[in-house]
Amino acid sequence: MSPGRQPLWINRLWDGEFVSINFNELRELLGAIAHTDIAEVSLKTETFELTVRRDITTTAIQSPTATTPEVLVPPSVAPTATPPPEPVPSPADKEWVAITSPMVGTFYRAPAPDEPPFVEVGDRVGNTQTVCIIEAMKLMNEIEAEVTGEVMEIAVTNGEPVEYGQTLMWVNPS
């Protein structure tokens, strides 16, 4: 210990009597506790309190299991190759027109949560008909179809964030 430095003493109550513990004894105590299954230790005085908690996890010992030999049986019939499914044409492959978002915001299908949607798949729309709302910066912006035809697909889920230019729905023009 360097001259002029006092040792760290901690007074603690042990069976009704105060006892003192210095830093080295504390370190030795914590080291001894580390090799046990004690999960928490507390030392407390009028001016000092020390609590040490640690997570004690037990590892389960896995019992050995008997393995059975794997028996390979040759197939009696050779598997037949199934033709790959035909690709489903995307809306872009058809002559459908995309209604896209003119801004970043949140997509809503109805004017209010308790009201019916503006349009459903299969509905006919006119070129100035409102088909949805995009909320941007607390403003509700009505989006118009800009094409006359039948709504073939709604590409966005109600309440979902949308990006500028993102396809909202597909219309088959007529």
TrEMBL record:
Domain Lipoyl-binding residue range list: 94-172
Any Pfam family matching the protein: Biotin_lipoyl
Coiled coil region boundaries: none
Disordered: annotated segments: 61-91
One cellular-component annotation, GO: acetyl-CoA carboxylase complex
InterPro entries on file: ACC_Biotin_Carrier, AcCoA_biotinCC, Biotin_lipoyl, Single_hybrid_motif
Entry keyword annotation includes DNA repair: no
Organism: Crocosphaera watsonii WH 8502
Function noted in UniProt: This protein is a component of the acetyl coenzyme A carboxylase complex; first, biotin carboxylase catalyzes the carboxylation of the carrier protein and then the transcarboxylase transfers the carboxyl group to form malonyl-CoA.
Composition bias type Pro residues, residue spans: 81-90
Gene Ontology biological-process annotations: fatty acid biosynthetic process
Superkingdom assignment: Bacteria
PROSITE patterns cross-referenced by the UniProt entry: BIOTINYL_LIPOYL
Pathway: Lipid metabolism; fatty acid biosynthesis
Segments of skewed composition (Low complexity): 61-80
Keywords: Biotin, Fatty acid biosynthesis, Fatty acid metabolism, Lipid biosynthesis, Lipid metabolism
GO molecular function terms listed in the Swiss-Prot or TrEMBL record: acetyl-CoA carboxylase activity
Stated name of the protein: Biotin carboxyl carrier protein of acetyl-CoA carboxylase
